[in-house]
Amino acid sequence: MGNVTIRDVARRADVAISTVSRYLNGGALKADTRAAIEEAIAALGFRRNEVASSMRRGQTRMIGILLCDTIEFFQYTLYQTLEAELWKLGYQCILTTYGNLNVSDKIRTLRQRNVDGLILYYYLPDPAVHDAITEALEDGVPVILLDSDAPDLVTDKVLVDNLNASFRAVEIMIQKGHRDIAVVTGTEKHPVSSERLSGYLECMKAYGLPIQEGYVLYGHFSIADSYNAVSRLMKLPRPPTALFTGSYHMTFGAIMAIREAGFRIPDDISIIGFDNVEVSEAVLHDLTIVEQPVDRIGATAADLMHRRILGENGEKARTIRVPARLVMRNTVARPPKHRENGLF
Amino acid sequence: MGNVTIRDVARRADVAISTVSRYLNGGALKADTRAAIEEAIAALGFRRNEVASSMRRGQTRMIGILLCDTIEFFQYTLYQTLEAELWKLGYQCILTTYGNLNVSDKIRTLRQRNVDGLILYYYLPDPAVHDAITEALEDGVPVILLDSDAPDLVTDKVLVDNLNASFRAVEIMIQKGHRDIAVVTGTEKHPVSSERLSGYLECMKAYGLPIQEGYVLYGHFSIADSYNAVSRLMKLPRPPTALFTGSYHMTFGAIMAIREAGFRIPDDISIIGFDNVEVSEAVLHDLTIVEQPVDRIGATAADLMHRRILGENGEKARTIRVPARLVMRNTVARPPKHRENGLF
DNA sequence: CTGAAAGCGCTTACAG
DNA sequence: CTGAAAGCGCTTACAG
What we know:
The structure is a homodimer. Chain A is an alpha/beta fold. Chain A has three domains: 6-48, 434 Repressor (Amino-terminal Domain) (Orthogonal Bundle); 59-160 and 294-322, Rossmann fold, CATH 3.40.50.2300; 162-293 and 326-339, Rossmann fold, CATH 3.40.50.2300. Chain A is built from 13 helices and twelve strands. Chain A has helices at residues 6-13, 17-24, 31-44, 50-57, 74-88, 103-112, 127-138, 162-175, 191-206, 223-234, 248-260, 277-281, 294-310; strands at residues 62-67, 92-97, 117-121, 143-146, 156-160, 181-186, 216-219, 242-245, 270-275, 288-291, 319-322, 325-327. Chain A is elongated. The interface between A and B is large, with 61 and 59 residues.
């Protein structure tokens, strides 16, 4: 077994190979022809050679995926939903991540495999990568950008409405009476971080609150960077009474640092994290969070890709912003009396 | 561009297509022939169609990879090193994870893509999966099992020497004078967990120490499960003076729970984690750990796969145990006097 | 060192 | 509803 071909099946079923092919592709067949083919397939253990099929059809039903190599587990979760959704639609995924190697080369290598589409988590504004993406687009290969609104790339995009989500999170803290609100988020270069930061800044501005010195913290999306940054934060002469954290791992790091510094949540400091519900539920069962809709991002991107491949989406590029949801729980309380903002 | 073929290159360079093919495959060429082909390739923007090449050669240079869908980020890190190493060797990876869908079907679908090999993180003893793996092996498709020593599957295996590593970690605690040592590790079904647990049990036995009731804790390899388990542990009438944790995430959960319960590390309780150095370095810079050699697992598996494909490994299946390394830092101290084991 | 020819395993018009 | 034939873009013996 193993290299049984359509020819063997045809011979055994006593039909032409084109008939077997028709069977495989769901064409109309007389009942007994169908039965004979099915018998032959079962008896021989035939499985279609997808490589040959891909070559002939000019479609591989493979999607190339490029993700970051950060520790942030968001990437892995995202891949899983993406892959699961695409699998249901009949696609398999080739996954690569940023690495020592040149990202634009990775994209080109993926293209040499004749992937039917490319889903990229792309945020570093690298001109070489930009070119590789443009080439793909010019050659008619659909590209979906995740978590990036790169305005100079005219292609489909799926992103989380980070700005609004952050705005609303900060707003809730303000409405509880907080004024000294800090934020810790990813590196400035990352559009996700900067959108989350913008939400914070815009909200503070909207309510006329000042940004205290040392209250805006950056780092990688990691437990470590957040832990270190928040440790410093809590040592400030005037530590914040509320903190907004930019990711799952960052939330853990922040909580560790806060507790270690001897502050209680939410009595001394309120906290709102940014992440995925199911995950934080168990440990941080009382954490108020902005829910990162990973499943919806994955499902949306998969669906968009499928339609694009079928040519159902019309010509123009679409940008889909998946909304984030606030999950109110118990880590936001009023600040100590003397530190209220006096607005409410 | 985009569908420039070898034929176009041949025409422009005024040579036969077989000559272009020879160029692409590194054959010997006269200098001017070579130059003409290179000129044509550059001018036309030709890139070899890997699908056609795969079909003709009967080799796809693609490796199918199956991993868990657990939260544990070990999987993602592992994939990254695996993929990076394989990429260097000229392979791309199709990644799928356990999911709602049938794992044996996933393996078969991967095989229909004519992957050159399969690298599987397989631990659930599912007979259907077992069959799918056996089929692959029978058809001559190399399979590497990760972190599993499934004795009834005669194939290459790469695993961490969990048992020894755990034994040594626990031994260090015992030599520091500990007697009341607890362990928190993954679900019993997982061979990795059970090996780590065995190391603990064997070491305790070797030194004649009793296992206190409630000191052996299970959970998923997650921050959450570990946090919950260790929270209970620290509420026992006689909490342990030392704890061995079974994974990266579990270590975080344990530390959170310990600190929250008001215990100091290492004054009140010593701790040794099981994980990857680079990652924990920043936050838990003083944590004594058993280093999980993710990079070596990935590199070893990639190398083994490559040789297997080239047919260099001879006939018989190899099992490679990658040793873990103890990284001594500062989270192991002597227990309080009255709780010493009196052995040292 | 180079070319002409066959063929990898399918699918797709085109006849019948 | 079914079959014979051409061809997808390469690689690989085989000649020369």
